[in-house]
Design brief:
The complex is a heterodimer of chains A (193) and B (309). With 193 residues, chain A is mainly alpha-helical. Chain A is 84% helix and 0% strand. In chain A, helix 2 packs across helix 7, helix 6 packs antiparallel against helix 7 (123-153) and helix 7 packs across helix 8. Chain B has 309 residues and is of the alpha/beta class. Chain B has twelve helices and twelve strands. Classes of the chains: A mainly alpha (193), B alpha/beta (309).
Chain lengths: 193, 309
């Protein structure tokens, strides 16, 4: 347990060391625990947030959907990123990357304190505050992803960034193609009057 | 040791925050929940049936509209319904069915308000008068209070192309309004009686809904259409305004404080363009072609004759 807490501390303050240790020791059990905690805490906050605006039914879908999608993204993402990392010359194991990526979600637990802090602010700045600090949390998570990939596959930072953005770029490209295609189809309905 | 303390502190903070969020939520749940307003759309020709089905639901057809009214009636959170009408009318019976359902909703204590779009004529107007209040645009086409029963005689055409249709019928009038023979004077009188009877029902509905004298309604109800301005001058509509004015009016009538939540029924989505290609397209687009052919030839219609021809 003591070691686990040390690792969590290092994930926040010495991420490179922490990710290297996690990837080499392949601590999948710890990783799953951290991952579930990191997903459950913001989901819990979302659940009560949605309930307060009378979306009780939607809230359950959101909480379950958030957990399932994150879980799938974590496992499938680790597979894809591992494959791309190997194609870019990295050496490591998918299990090591999976373990390290699980810990990368840890900053998401700060969303709960952020929500509490935001609720104490004037309404006019609440949205801005949340947008800003949730973005910081997302960027922090992405940076931990990059460090996890770099340390798990012994890559340079630039290559680790490439590993991360390659699937996103492909998805973005497919999205652009779909939007353009749909736009072209919809334009056919426009001439009226 | 410091590392452990930091993480333990962090865990305590997060747990405290989660507890705070849960407790605050239970405290802040408002005792008063603003009621919802349902928006139900009546688009295109009013005809009985289930409309079109797709992966994303059903659209069109009065069965669908009646079910939506029924659902809105059963939903306790819905305090008022806005009926957005954009219809030239349709079948008398289908219109009457929807009108009766609207009456049930009103009898249950819920407010129903009509909002007219481009056109709310004939059957569309029938539905509007069954509501508590009617909003129209100054340029809305409405009125057309009347009933007709379309009939086509194709006998000469059938003879020219060599088709001779024969029937073995149980009675002289079993094939009344059949397009392969002319209508007799006796049958014309029978049909006229039916149309008149339906017309009188329409007049009753208008007189009752608008709190007007039957005689006064008779004078207006020669089938002509009116603009929104004319209709307001004649007392056929209450106010000018768009859908949101009608929603505000309904909220006020239902005693909803603050901004009401809106629940739209049968709202089309971009995906419906793929899963139900033609369901979102306005029926008027089809009117001169497919839809006109689909109209049953002997159903009494409450819609301007020009659209039904």
């Amino acid at each position: 347990m003591g070691n686990f807490l040390d690792i969590l501390y290092d994930v926040l303050f010495h991420p490179a060391v922490a990710m290297r240790t996690i990837a080499s020791e392949k601590r999948l059990g710890y990783s799953l625990g951290v991952f579930l905690l990191s997903v459950f805490v913001p989901a819990w906050a979302s659940y009560f947030g949605l309930q307060s605006v009378d979306f009780s039914v939607v809230a359950w879908f959101v909480i379950i959907g958030q957990i399932l999608i994150s879980l799938v993204f974590w496992i499938v993402g680790a597979g894809f990123f591992g494959l791309i990392a190997e194609l870019l010359g990295g050496h490591g194991t998918a299990a090591g990357l999976l373990a390290a990526m699980g810990f990368s979600h840890f900053p998401r637990i700060f969303i709960a304190p952020l929500l509490v802090f935001a609720s104490l602010l004037p309404r006019t700045v609440q949205a801005l505050f949340l947008a800003l600090f949730v973005s910081v949390t997302v960027v922090w998570t992405l940076i931990l992803y990059i460090i996890a990939i770099r340390e798990a596959y012994l890559l340079s930072t630039l290559r680790a960034v490439m590993v991360l953005i390659t699937p996103l770029a492909v998805i973005f490209g497919i999205g652009i193609v779909i939007v353009v295609s749909v736009g072209t189809m919809l334009l056919q309905w426009l001439p009226w009057l | 040791m410091l590392k452990k303390l930091v993480i333990v502190f962090l865990v305590i903070v997060v747990l405290a925050c989660l507890t705070f969020i849960a407790a605050r939520n239970s405290d802040l749940k408002p005792a008063y929940k603003p009621g919802k307003i349902a928006v139900i759309y009546v688009d295109g020709v009013i005809m009985n049936g289930r409309g079109q089905s797709s992966l994303l639901g059903e659209r069109g057809g009065t069965d669908n509209i009646i079910r939506q009214l029924h659902d809105a009636l059963a939903d306790e959170t819905i305090k008022a319904i806005v009926l957005r009408i954009n219809s030239p009318g349709g079948s008398v019976t289908a219109t009457q069915e929807v009108g009766e359902e609207i009456k049930k909703v009103r009898a249950a204590g819920k407010i129903v308000v009509a909002s007219m779009g481009d056109i709310a004529a004939s059957g569309g107007y029938w539905l509007a008068v069954t509501t508590d209040r009617i909003y129209a645009n100054p340029t809305t086409l409405t009125g057309s209070i009347g009933v007709y029963m379309p009939y086509a005689n194709w006998q000469e055409l059938l003879q020219k192309i060599g088709i001779q249709q024969e029937k073995i019928k149980s009675g002289a009038h079993k094939d009344i309004l059949s397009p392969d023979r002319p209508i007799t004077d006796e049958e014309r009188k029978m049909i006229q009686t039916i149309v008149d009877q339906m017309y009188e029902q329409f007049v009753d509905i208008v007189a009752d809904g608008r709190k007007m004298d039957r005689q006064a309604v008779h004078q207006l109800a020669d089938g002509r259409i009116y603009t929104g301005i004319q209709a307001k001058e004649l007392g056929l509509v209450d106010d000018f305004g768009n859908l949101y004015d009608a929603i505000d009016g309904a909220a006020k009538m239902a005693g909803i404080r603050g901004k009401p939540q809106i629940k739209e029924y049968d709202k089309g989505s971009p995906l419906s363009l793929f899963f139900g290609a033609n369901e979102k397209i306005d029926l008027s687009m089809f009117f001169p072609t497919q839809l006109r052919q689909a109209l049953p030839t002997i159903t009494p219609l409450a819609m301007p004759v020009r659209w039904g021809e």
